[in-house]
Amino acid sequence: MKILVCGGAGYIGSHTVKELLREGFDVLIFDNFSSGREELLSGGKVIRADLMDQEALRQTFQSHDIGAVLHFASLIQVGESYLDPQKYYFHNLVTSLNLLEAMLAAGVKRFVFSSSAAVYGAPEVTPIPESHPLNPFNPYGQTKLFVEKILLDYEKAYNLKFISLRYFNAAGADPEGRLGEMHDPETHLIPNILLYLLGKKKIFELYGADFPTPDGTAVRDYVHVTDLASAHVLALKRLLATSESEFINLGTNQGHSVLEVLKMAEAATGLKAKFELRPRRKGDVPVLLASKNKAERLLGWELRYSQLETIIKTAWSWHKRH
Predict the structure, then answer these.
(1) DSSP secondary structure string, 147-169?
(2) 3 state DSSP class of 206
(3) Which of 130, 208, 248, 294 is surrounded by the most beta carbons within 10 Å?
């Protein structure tokens, strides 16, 4: 039985592929390499194809004994989703529907979905539990919520079983140094700080210093990408063993402000960073933290690398070499 990983050459996908291989799974990677990178692949057979290509999907399921699917492939830039919502609705929804159609045609009914904290919108309570109201206010978050609604309907109609993992802020790099974050353009805070410190970016922009937080900058929940990857393996194992659908947050129950992250980066690298202050970005909320209780209870998930210092040191090690 093979595990199909769509988007397996991307940031979180590639780290998950490495963990799946470590756990002995037979991995099949489906990626169009629009943002994925060949150098991030640790092994597994690769199918270079697009989820828009229904025939490629049909042939993939026809040619391989696939037991479950992990779906990472999507557009992820929140700012761009405001500017071009059509692109996000069309791409993220049609690719997911094509994949689900091919799965059902082949009788494959185990699905792990890469969702997002963006499904919640502005938090009413923190840390956010999975029972929190779902009210995304950017098109990217809407696409993730729509796929979750589709999964609920497909479970009722077709007995498709799924686990939807709602990420908070993925960060860091493979502790062994083989994998890391390679987005273009890069929109995430920690790599942008480190790229600035390496002289690869001319300026570092800090968005908003007037939030109702202790130092005025936004507070976010940062999860090491290797911890995220381990959660996917645990989710897959649970799904194969129990066939129970779930929505599960992946966070740490705690947060760090932008200035805290900046100071930790300076301490870890021995370099000083200057920033240029910008207004808040559209849709930014002061604090966004996840409850990890359900992930711990149902998956037995343990955070091994998600201390902020570890996140930054592993990311720094990666970016210095790459």
Answers:
(1) HHHHHHHHHHHH--EEEEEEE-E
(2) strand
(3) 248
Q: Give CA–CA dist 210/280, Å, rounded.
A: 8
Point out the catalytic residue in the list 120, 140, 154, 167: 140
SS3 27: strand
**Same domain as 151, residue 257:** no
d(CA 4, CA 30): 7
* 154 in the same domain as 21: yes
In tens, the pLDDT along 105-154 reads: 999 999 999 999 999 999 999 999 999 999 998 999 999 999 999 999 99
Q: Is 120 a catalytic residue?
A: no
For residue 158 the two structure tokens come to 């077709």
For residue 171, report the phi and psi dihedrals to the nearest 5 degrees: -155, 170
* Shared-domain flag, residues 7 and 145: yes
- How many structural domains compose the chain? 2
Domain that holds residue 37: 2-170+222-250
Q: How does residue 315 score in pLDDT terms, banded at 50, 70 and 90?
A: very high
Asked if 286 and 258 count as a contact pair (C-beta separation under 8 A), the reply is no
Residue 219 sits at φ, ψ, to 5 deg, of -105, 130
| AA identity, residue 219 | V
Provide the CATH number for the domain around residue 20.
Answer: 3.40.50.720
The last residue of a domain, from among 213, 235, 250: 250
Do 261 and 154 share a structural domain? no
How confident is the model at residue 187, as a pLDDT? 81
Note the pLDDT tens digit of each residue in 26-51: 999 999 999 899 889 999 999 999 99
